[in-house]
Amino acid sequence: MSKTRLFDCAALVSFLILLLALPAAARQWNPGSSGAALDYTQILHAKGNGEIVVIWWVVPETFASVPNSQPLQDVLSRYVVIGVADGHAGANGAMSYGEVADLKITDQTARSLSALPSNVTPPEVAQAISALQTIARQSLGPVGQGIRWFVFDGSTIHSCTPGKMSVPYGGETYTYDTPIPGCAK
């Protein structure tokens, strides 16, 4: 896939996410499948003392209705991609983001999976992460700039098959039950 096409795809996807993110402050009344998937896979945890943790499992269902997003959906169906941001509010209210050094996840059998090392990340995955980072910066602003991306082998965790995924981070264990909302029935 050419970089131009990937960035065109990223622009369309970022527009969709922006549209989906705008009403995020309010409860969605009747979200479509991609809105339901996005709503379920983004976890925002206000931990107190000005700390906010964002965990985002990026799933193919989020982009199902976006034109030209099939290459991104293909990558997201083969790998588990998780973005993490750990923000801290400063005295003036500006957010700073700490380094997220490592992340491990577990599947429904409690098997721990480590992130793929960056030196063995396939080129199509690197392109997808680049597109997701662009989308996150454009649609989530400073929070998007603070996201660190992790990629895991997706052979045991799929968004639309029965199971569970756990993401231990910062003294909490964030969980996802699958199939997620937004999967085809």
Which helices and strands appear, and what pairs or packs with what?
Elements: H1 3-21, H2 33-41, E1 42-48, E2 51-58, H3 70-78, E3 79-89, E4 95-97, E5 104-106, E6 112-114, H4 123-140, H5 142-145, E7 148-153, E8 163-169, E9 172-178
Antiparallel strand pairs: 1-2, 2-3, 3-4, 3-7, 5-6, 8-9
Please characterize this protein's 3D structure.
It is a single chain. Helices cover 32% and strands 30% of the residues. The protein is α+β, with helices and mostly antiparallel strands and 185 residues long. It has five helices and nine strands; from the N terminus they run H-H-E-E-H-E-E-E-E-H-H-E-E-E. Helix 1 (3-21) packs parallel to helix 4.
Largest sheet: 5 strands, antiparallel
Strand content: 25-35%
Instruction: Bin the helical content.
Output: 25-40%
The ordered string of helix (H) and strand (E) elements is HHEEHEEEEHHEEE
The helix/strand class is alpha+beta
Number of strands: 9
What characteristic shape results from the CA principal axes? globular
| Continuous helix count | 5
Taking the alpha carbons of the first and last residues, their distance comes to: 30 Å
Rg, nearest Å:
16 Å
Mean pLDDT: 84
Poorly predicted sequence stretches spanning 5 or more consecutive residues: 5-24
Write a short abstract of this structure:
With 185 residues, this protein is α+β, with helices and mostly antiparallel strands.
